[in-house]
Amino acid sequence: MSDEHLTRHIMAQSNFTYGQDPKPLQVKAVINLVRGRHTFLLAGTGFGKSRVSEMFFKLYPCHKKAVTLVLNPLDTLGDNQVAEKLQMGMSAVNLTKMTLNEAMAARIINGEYSFVYMSPEAFLNNPIFTALFFNPTFQNRLALVVVDEGHMIYMWGLVASGKSKKLSSHSRHEDRAVYRPSYGKIGHRLLATNGTPVLIQSATCRPLAIKAILESLRILPEDIDILQGELTRPEIRLIRVDMEHSLGSCDDLLAQFADIADTSNDELVPMLIYSTKVVSKVVHEARGIVDGHEDPFSQCCRRFHAVTGDLDKELAVKEFAEGVYPMISATMALGLGQNWSRVRSVIHMGRGDPASIAQMIGRCGRDGRPGLGIIFVEKNRKNGKNRVDQFPDPENQGDDDRMDALAITPVCLRIAFSLDNLIGYIPLSFDDPNYRREKAREEACGFLECLCSNCHPEYAAWLMANLRRLNIGNFTSLVTSNPPPLTLAPIGPPSPRFQEHFDSMGCTNELEAEDLFSIRSARAIANCVDGISKPELRRIIGGDIVRGQVDMLFDCVMGFKSGPAYLAYATRKSQEESEIMQRMETLRNARAVELRRTELARQARAEQARAARMETQERRRIAAASKAAEAERKRLRRIDNAFHLNHFKAIAKAKADARVEGGEIPNQSSMGESSSGGPASSDQ
Questions:
Q1: Which of 277, 523, 638, 654 is deepest in the core (most CB within 10 A)?
Q2: pLDDT in tens, 299-322
């Protein structure tokens, strides 16, 4: 089949499955795999890389029972993708140490699962899977091998080679520093796939990393096609902030979140905060939630770290996806490959590897809506480079140099991340030829104007100053717009009323408005505005500080309550309360039904248990009676046997005595009796 016919078939199949046209790069990747070519798909987060393997699988007829083997770095990622495949009507399984056994291996060989997810450790070291992998039937079914998040081969390969010990950027990301050398040894096993194409997927891979990955997988450059899509995410606004406090304290976050009295947890922007420090404690402190970080079921922020238990991780991921709580304090592993459309903002604490930070920030805005990425960086790093003039060769940067360059570069952050992905370094000058070319390309592609903190520092400062006011309702408008220029009205002559007030008060400034009516009093009034009375108002503010203050405030409150805004609020609140009462009544009824059902079930179980006990007692009684009857029969039988035995002995003795008296010679037994002590015969 020609490429043209194959393209039409793939597009028709995609339209039938997903209801939309596939992207040209997705089609090209599928065609490559059909031709048996290894493929490295390099595309930005949210591109839809996981669909490529699905589209390729759909080309196989059902009776072939083709199998796609997917290697991923995390079990939670496999669980997430299995759930997505099941929603698409495809059979899938995530092989972990709890699920991989002989029975599961037999089902996989029989072709019961179209997608098999597993970790590199299980792929290489599990004896059950080793036998499964080299089974001829499985090899015939194996259609594709996918290495998901391929950049992890390079990152964890640094650990296996020992190079990571000298890199500060590597240890700053907890999950990268984990010793997982298996990711660097996948190539040995892939040599036995008998020509099965390999699909490598990643969103961030420098040329140096791509070269190292291909060497690790034993794939020659001429045997693989590298397909590169758009890596820039123009819908994400990037803000870099110099930290005022230490990285260990994370106190820079204290000013970024509003008190829970001002913004409820339900209104907070869904957010991921990447750090290995005490983020959860600081966030709860900023929100005014006492000891909230010690609550594993916090409705504000939870943790997803290496020391977090597996069950807690599963619950945290599940409830975050369901919208139970808005923020997670996590390490790099969280969100790896997850398709969470609700994440709107990502915060990264401290300097770090640019490729890893790009991965983390790319987890927001996946639904096409604007996202916000905030990078808090230390002003100075010990033994690091903290000024542009400390880079003698800006285009030749090591891993630590790239980390430091991202923290101090004056150029557009969006272009900096793009060039790091494309070429492998962070530009430090506006005159950099690669920077100019990338900037011209973005303009030619019609990208939105970049609003990063380097392109518009004054707008970024305004956004950070108002970050605590962000909520779900105003997030898009605040992130995508900039404050209008402030035009001050010309100063004219004072009004007569103001002049009279000024003359009466004089030019003293002993009292300020905050002294007479504080924001705390205003919030207290707002909290009980529904049923407030003048005595209650007087109690709240502590009486008149200025004569007539209570009357004036009460008139203001009554005027507000009679206005359209409050009436609309009251109507909406009444409707919500009515809906809540209806739901509560429904829940109460359902609970009553459930309790009744539970009680009936309990009674039925009790009745069954009682009947079983009675039946057991009856069986025991019958058994005891049978045993007693049998014992009585045996006793009577013994008595009868003894009677007959004695009777026979008496008859025998009588006969013997009669023979002796008649002069008959006694038999041998009688002689035996005589010789043993009986009387001697007359012959003797």
A1: 277
A2: 999 988 877 887 888 888 889 989
